[in-house]
Structure formats: C-alpha cells, structure tokens
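hiii, so i know i said id send this last week but things got crazy w the move. better late than never?? heres the sequnce for the chain we talked about at the cafe, plus the structure i predicted for it. fair warning i was half asleep when i ran it
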Amino acid sequence: MTTINKSDPKLTAFVLGELSEAEMLEIQKMLDENIELQNEVEAIRSTVSQVETLLQNENSMTLAPSVSAGANSHTPRPRAHAWGWSSALCVLVVCGVAVALLLPAKQAARQAAKDMVIHSEGMRLVTEAPTQTELEPYRRRRTPHEIRRPFGPAPLR
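okay and structure toks below
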C-alpha cells in the first residue's frame, strides 16, 4: 500500500466524491491507519461545508428595488464626444494624403532647379572660354629638363 501526503489533492477528491471505488477504498484504508490524515480530511470537509454555506447565501441575495429598476431601464448614455475621435482621424488622413501628394512634387521641383543650375553652368563654360590667366593656377609647372627636351625621355648616360 502506498502512503499519501497531507497536501495530496486526492484527499480533496475523496471528500468531494470524485474518486473511483478502488481509490476510495485505498484512501479509506489509509485514513483508518493514520490519524493525521483523518484530521486533514475533517479540515477539508469543514472548509467544503463553509464554502457551500457561503454559496447558498450568495444565491439567495437579491438586489434592492432601486438598483434592479436602474439595471432594467435601458436609457442610452449621452454621447458628448461622439464625433471627437472620428474627426481627429479624418484630419490625420487628410494630412497624410496631402503630404503623400505634395512630397513628390516638391522633390521634382528641387531636381528641376538643380538641373537648371547645372545646365546654366555648362552653358556659361561653353560660351565663355577661360583665359590663360584663369587657367594659370591649374597648369603644371615644367622643370628645366622638360623644357630642353620636350619630347620623350631624357637620354641615359
């Protein structure tokens, strides 16, 4: 025969009658041998009876007439802010659509202005050839050796 602990849920199931016949007989044999288990089963029976009494009292409770009259009346609640959320949502949608439509147009205008600047700069370079003095800072200075022999490498010695 197996031993059972005081906190085993089988004791509660025994008190509530939720066990099979074989398990009920086994628990009953253990109860006959162990006084601690008998005390625990009595405590569980006491708790169960207290809970049943409280539940019976709760079911017999009724509402006061003023409360039950208020619960049965179906007066609609005043809706002071009925359009508050929907109007805010509409405003957000309109702003989102405006941004979505205007943003590509603004980017296209920027690109067109940039292209115009590049085109006008290119036209200025074509129409106005730089003078020698303007190109002087960008010219590479030649060494005296390159001035004497402008073509090809210097001869080996």
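btw The chain has a mean pLDDT of 75. thought thatd interest u
miss u guys!!
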